[in-house]
Amino acid sequence: MAGVEPCAAAAGALGLEAVLEAATRIRGRAHRTPVLGSAWLDAATGATVFLKCENLQRTGSFKFRGAVNAVGSLSEAEARRGVATHSSGNHAAALALAARRRGVPATVVMPRGAPAVKRRAVAGYGARVVECEGGLAAREAGLARVLAETGAVPIHPYDDDRVIAGQGTAALELIQEVPDLDLVLAPVGGGGLLSGTALAVAAGPARIRVVGVEPAAADDARRSLEVGRILGARETHTVADGLRTALCERTYRLIRRHVEAIVAVEEPSIIAAMRGLWERTKLLVEPSSAVPVAAILEGTPSARGLRVGVIISGGNVDLDRLPWQEPS
Hints:
The structure is a single chain. By secondary structure, the protein is α/β, with parallel strands linked by helices. It has two domains: 11-61 and 160-312, Rossmann fold; 64-154, Rossmann fold. Helices cover 44% and strands 15% of the residues. A six-stranded mixed beta sheet has the order 1-2-10-7-8-9, with helices on both faces. A four-stranded parallel beta sheet has the order 5-4-3-6, sandwiched between helices. α3 packs parallel to α5.
């Protein structure tokens, strides 16, 4: 990202210790979200499924974990400079609230086309919103200007060791509560959640497999692992719009090292899984959260006879535009 300072530690230096430190740092600041079972999913998959409900996290997604760890990691001198990012989604709200709770000024660069409800949420948490044109280049240019003007510390949504370690605390809590899992699944977009999940799980005493899941319409992570290099995100449409982001070098290396596989699911399966979670488990989840559930319902990977943990990543949904509704 233009104008972004590198993190102190290289991606290869990240490990379980960083996740454990993050867990200590965020304790009492982020919710320890519940782990719930589902008789419906057990019957449909032949597995015993445990849902780590990050839809019940502060700001409605796992993103708050990484944001609060990153903001909590700042020195007093850094905190006085404030923090900044570009985001039109869950990271924007997470960073805004994490900064407010520490008394740190925050600036979020958001494209003009971002939903008004998201802009209001970010502003409501106390961040300054700076508008930019759409597209990654415009976002990065806008952030570079903010950094030059304010001297703020950049907090990237996933290309940041502190953020990745914070995201890993969700899986850490999951395996502490259910230590005898065989398989853990998490959605993958930019890879911060999947990288953190893998770090928390891979270094544990048990051999737990980690699999990432993404929409087939935005399967750049799966294709990147197949060809051995990062492939950029395609201009595409998926109901799981939070997963359209491409991997960065940091998350790509961690995923290659620690994740068994990445699988992809089609749009109808994502919508069916989301609706099933709403109707059968009564959990309000966003489409990105339904992606790994869609995978085990399809049997890819096969979960039959296994104890399976699923990271339910968030619950921020536009209730006026549910994916199973006919367009007006």
